[in-house]
Design a protein that fits this description.
Elements: E1 6-11, E2 14-18, E3 24-29, E4 34-37, H1 46-53, E5 58-61, H2 73-76, E6 78-81, H3 86-91, H4 95-104, E7 125-128, E8 134-136, E9 141-146, E10 155-159, E11 164-168, E12 175-176, H5 185-196, E13 204-207, E14 214-215, H6 217-231, E15 237-241, E16 244-248, E17 252-254, E18 257-258, E19 266-268
Parallel strand pairs: 4-5, 6-7, 11-13, 12-19
Antiparallel strand pairs: 1-2, 2-3, 3-4, 8-9, 9-10, 10-11, 13-14, 15-16, 16-19, 17-18
Helix pairs in contact: 5-6
């Protein structure tokens, strides 16, 4: 048993791993190797924990480069990532920043990590991955789909055999745009339309936060929200999150549940709606 991580089997060959800050990653095993989708915050040895779960050689790929998804890159020393997000890995890699992220999101966890538990910053060998790349794990194929929005290099990963997407922060009930490195709403809509080209190949999304699968209709709802934001007919609900002021396309009843009962919500700023 680990003080840092919790593992849950969600498919015969897929393990969901939860970090101390509520962030999640996914270990997918094939016949020849395994793919680790995202690397949490880099607090505690995720590499050692994964080694307890599989004897297969493991490759790390990032949905995007944010602090709560890229931490294990400093432990593995290498990762697959879209080139647009390489800078994000280092911008968020400061040990104090990763430590403070976990402390701010522990949600009552009994174990208190120490600063010595943070994997130190180092140079990472980045391998470029783009839309259309297929990871062949031996009898298991994982397809890459580019969905720029949350960051310019955001990727999601499709397992057609299990009809599932591993989506990171690409499309969820609190999709954050207007961060450093985010795209405009206009660009995000185009990304979602590209995502919709694969709509018949999957049923649910497993994201980087929240343990449960989300129905795929969230993508259609997010496209509708983009249209409303660009038309100025959304709720424009003001709210501060992660210390930043945003406008949310839908108002809340609490705990990020929208007033109209829809799954999708988008946080944005008025100056980042349209492409210049």
């Amino acid at each position: 048993m680990s003080k840092f991580f919790t593992a849950t089997k969600i498919f015969d060959n897929v393990t969901q791993i939860l970090g101390l800050g509520g962030e999640q990653c996914y270990l997918i095993e094939g016949g020849e190797k395994a793919l680790l989708i995202d690397g949490l915050t880099g607090i505690g040895s995720l590499k050692a924990f994964v080694r307890e779960l599989t004897d297969l050689p493991v490759e790390l790929v990032l949905t995007h480069g944010h602090v709560d998804h890229a931490g294990a890159a400093f432990e593995y020393g290498a990762c697959w990532v879209h080139p647009a997000d390489i800078g994000q890995i280092y911008n968020g890699g400061d040990p104090d920043r990763r430590y403070n992220f976990v402390l701010g999101n522990r949600r009552g966890a009994a174990f208190q990590p120490k600063k010595d538990d943070v994997i130190p910053l180092c140079n990472v060998r980045t391998k470029p991955v783009y839309d259309g790349h297929v990871f062949d794990l031996g009898g298991v194929q994982i397809e890459t789909i580019a969905v720029p929005g949350h960051t310019e290099g955001t990727l999601v990963f499709l397992d057609r055999a299990r009809r599932v997407i591993y989506s990171g922060d690409a499309c969820n009930p609190n999709t954050l745009l207007a961060l450093d490195g985010s795209t405009t709403i206009e660009t995000y809509k185009q990304s979602l339309l590209h995502f919709m080209e694969f709509f018949d190949a999957f049923d649910v999304l497993y994201g980087g936060h929240g343990p449960h699968a989300v129905p795929k209709r969230i993508i259609e709802e997010a496209i509708e929200l983009c249209d409303e934001i660009m038309a100025g007919t959304d709720d424009q609900y003001p709210m501060e999150f992660i210390g930043r002021p945003f406008l949310y396309a839908r108002g809340f009843t609490g705990d990020f549940k929208t007033r109209d009962g829809r799954l999708a919500n988008i946080a944005y700023k008025k100056e980042t709606i349209f492409n210049k």
